[in-house]
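Project outcomes to date are best conveyed with an example. Our students and postdoctoral researchers have been running inverse folding experiments weekly, and each run begins with a structure described purely in tokens. The record below, which covers 406 residues, was selected by the lab manager from last quarter's runs and is presented without edits.
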């Protein structure tokens, strides 16, 4: 009966959105009717936006139902296609949205009433035989038809309940799917809208990738200038002074040479850190699975690590996945106050999927964390997707999908 419940929820909540759709259609019609005067021009754009927002809500509702009925509960492979609400009354999307919402405004409430009636009959058919004896003789109980005897009380309501449950089990999900498909088809973005949205997404991700690249270059330059270069200058000074004082003060010369040697080791360590941030050598040596296990081993929070066998992937893809895992584990160690976590990396349906979760306090937000913002930028540059669920009190679940060909 899970399918019946999903379809019932969709159709019953559709009654409320049908009433809102009637208001939206009325508002748009009123704004268009008054378009010859100033007030109509002022109301037209808000009315169209409201209509577009309601159309987006209906499209998402239809998508959720189709996913729930097709997959019987597991996570959807994708999200409902989003479309920016049109702001022009003459936009083709506005016409299609208005046409479907007009149909929904007429059909939504009767559909809701019909589904609720079926549930009432199904439940009432089980209760009426138990309550037949309460009804007074002079006022017979009526359940769709009058019930005047024990035989009718024991036979008619259960048969009606069986018929209603049969319709709920088979007809309601089938009709819900058909209605949702019609809604999704009618409200789907046009090819032009999808192309415009895709161009906007690529423009934004390209700008983000360029900004991230520029920021990375500035960081490398700062690390080399303020760290390694300063140490190399100090080494040169120490060695110069040691050479000039070697004859006069051998002990001081030895101390300066020792300082120079210490600075050489520190400079090498800083150079290794800079190189590691550009492209971790462990990726080249051990591949992504080995690098992920190494990161998990360094995390102070106990983790359950599951990394599926992976072939070698493009360097940019492995690097992005590595830094996603590194940043996620750093956030767990610093902010989550977690006692345990789970790390999964797998290749599924042309996607490299990274799942990182913990049982900490939650409350993580991309708007307040530079690390999570960096993850989004890295992933967006590769046309990937980031999903973060972190309610206050936990748990926190970070899911990253990166498209790959192998």
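After processing, the design step wrote out the following sequence:
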């Amino acid at each position: 009966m899970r399918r019946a419940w999903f379809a019932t929820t969709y159709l019953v909540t559709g009654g409320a959105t049908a009433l809102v759709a009637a208001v939206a259609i009325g508002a748009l019609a009123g704004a268009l009717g008054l378009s010859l005067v100033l007030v109509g021009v002022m109301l037209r754009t808000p009315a169209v936006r409201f209509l577009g927002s309601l159309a987006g809500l209906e499209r998402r509702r239809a998508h959720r139902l189709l996913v729930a009925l097709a997959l019987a509960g597991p996570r959807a492979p994708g999200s409902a296609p989003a479309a920016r609400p049109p702001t022009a009354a003459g936009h083709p999307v506005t016409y299609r949205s208005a046409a479907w919402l007009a149909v929904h405004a007429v059909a939504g409430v009767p559909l809701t009433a019909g589904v609720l009636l079926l549930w009432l009959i199904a439940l009432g058919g089980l209760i009426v035989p138990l309550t037949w004896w309460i009804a007074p003789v002079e006022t017979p109980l009526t359940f769709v038809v009058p019930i005047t005897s024990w035989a009718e009380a024991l036979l008619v309501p259960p048969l009606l309940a069986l018929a209603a449950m049969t319709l709920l089990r088979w007809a309601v999900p089938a009709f819900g799917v058909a209605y949702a498909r019609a809604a999704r088809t009618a409200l789907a973005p046009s090819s032009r809208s999808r192309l415009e949205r895709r161009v906007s997404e690529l423009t934004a991700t390209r700008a983000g990738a360029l900004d991230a690249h520029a920021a990375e270059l500035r960081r490398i330059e700062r690390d080399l200038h303020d760290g390694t270069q300063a140490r190399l200058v100090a080494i040169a000074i120490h060695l110069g002074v040691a050479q000039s004082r070697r004859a006069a003060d051998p002990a001081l010369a030895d101390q300066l040479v020792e300082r120079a040697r210490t600075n050489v080791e520190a400079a090498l360590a800083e150079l290794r850190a800079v190189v590691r941030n550009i492209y971790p050598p462990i990726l080249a040596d051990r591949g992504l699975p080995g690098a992920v296990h190494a990161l998990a081993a360094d995390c102070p929070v106990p983790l359950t690590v599951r990394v599926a066998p992976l072939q070698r992937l493009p360097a940019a893809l492995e690097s992005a996945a590595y830094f996603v895992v590194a940043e996620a584990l750093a956030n767990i160690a610093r902010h989550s106050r977690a006692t345990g976590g789970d790390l999964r990396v797998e290749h599924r349906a042309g996607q490299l999927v990274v799942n990182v979760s913990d049982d900490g306090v939650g409350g993580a937000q991309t708007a307040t964390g530079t690390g999570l913002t960096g993850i989004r930028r890295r992933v967006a540059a590769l046309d990937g997707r980031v999903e973060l669920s972190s309610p206050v009190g936990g748990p926190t679940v970070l899911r990253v999908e990166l498209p790959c060909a192998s």
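Residues 89 and 249 are 89 Å apart (CA to CA). The first helix runs from residue 2 to 33. The training component of this project remains on track.
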